[in-house]
Each structure stands twice: as C-alpha cells, then as structure tokens.
C-alpha cells in the first residue's frame, strides 16, 4: 500500500500497517478497487456470454428438430392428398360405370376399378407418388 508521509512524500509500506501519522493515498486505493471491480465484471460478462452461446446452441437444435418434424408432417400431408385424390377418382369412375347402360362395359370397368382399388390399398403409406 502506498502512503503519504507527514512531509507529503509517498512511501511504500508493503505488508506493514499504516502508521498513525501516515495518510492513505485514496486515489490509488480507488483505482485498485475500480480495477478489481472491472475484473469481476469482465468475468461475469464472460460467464454470461458462454451461457448465452449455450442457450443459442440449444435453441438452434430445437428449431432444427421442429423443422424436421414439420417437414415430416408436410410429407405425410402430401401422401394423404394423393391417396384422397386417387380414392375420389375411383369413386367417380364407379359412378360413371354405374350410369352406363351396357352391362358388359360396366363389368369390364368394375374389374379394372377393383384392380386399381387393390393397388391403392397395397401402396405403402410413405409412397406419395405411387
């Protein structure tokens, strides 16, 4: 610690207590405290930045998982739309065959539609373009 002697001169008193007549240099004391506090604040800031980086990483991973989940939902929706269209086409074809007056043509279409319905049912759920 630096002290001022009664004559106004600075002297270093390492490890020794301040003598009753000596004056403590408050500017150096305050500067040392400011430096110490700044070091603590810098350490706290570094800790907060590391924590923030970890949270950003976790958020990015969560967002990627959500994105994969949404992509899966979209794929399943496409498959569903294709299947619904095929089933609608099948019902329309059945209706047209039922409205025909020619019995042989109705039977031929019925057999073709039955084969198509069997193919629709055999199609795996994940195959959208089939």
Short description:
The protein is 72% helix and 6% strand. It is mainly alpha-helical and 130 residues long.
Account of the protein in words:
This protein is mostly helical and 130 residues long. The protein is 72% helix and 6% strand. It has two helices and three strands, in the order E-E-E-H-H. It has helices at 26-99, 103-122; strands at 2-4, 10-12, 23-24. A three-stranded antiparallel beta sheet has the order 2-1-3. A hairpin with a 5-residue loop joins strand 1 (2-4) and strand 2 (10-12).
Fold blueprint:
Blueprint: E1 2-4, E2 10-12, E3 23-24, H1 26-99, H2 103-122
Antiparallel strand pairs: 1-2, 1-3
Helix pairs in contact: 1-2
Across the major sheet, the strand order is: 2-1-3
Main β-sheet, in a few words? 3 strands, antiparallel
By DSSP, the count of extended strands is: 3
Mean pLDDT across the residues is: 80
| Radius of gyration from CA coordinates | 42 Å
Order of helices and strands: EEEHH
Task: Report how far the terminal alpha carbons are from each other.
Answer: 86 Å
- Summarize the amount of helix as a percent range: over 70%
Helical run tally: 2
How large a portion of the residues is in β-strands, by DSSP E? 5-15%
Task: Give the low-confidence spans.
Answer: none
Structural class: mainly alpha
Shape: rod-shaped
Search tags:
72% helix; 2 helices; 130 residues; three-stranded antiparallel sheet; mainly alpha; rod-shaped
């Amino acid at each position: 610690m630096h002290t001022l002697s009664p004559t106004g001169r600075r002297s270093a008193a390492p490890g020794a207590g301040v003598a009753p007549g000596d004056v403590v240099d408050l500017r150096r004391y305050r500067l040392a405290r400011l430096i110490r506090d700044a070091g603590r604040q810098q350490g706290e800031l570094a800790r907060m930045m590391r924590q923030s980086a970890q949270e950003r990483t976790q958020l990015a991973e969560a967002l990627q998982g959500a994105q994969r989940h949404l992509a899966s939902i979209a794929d399943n929706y496409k498959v569903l739309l294709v299947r619904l269209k095929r089933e609608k086409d099948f019902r329309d074809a059945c209706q047209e065959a039922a409205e025909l007056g020619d019995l042989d043509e109705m039977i031929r279409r019925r057999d073709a539609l039955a084969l198509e319905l069997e193919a629709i049912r055999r199609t795996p759920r994940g195959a959208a373009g089939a």
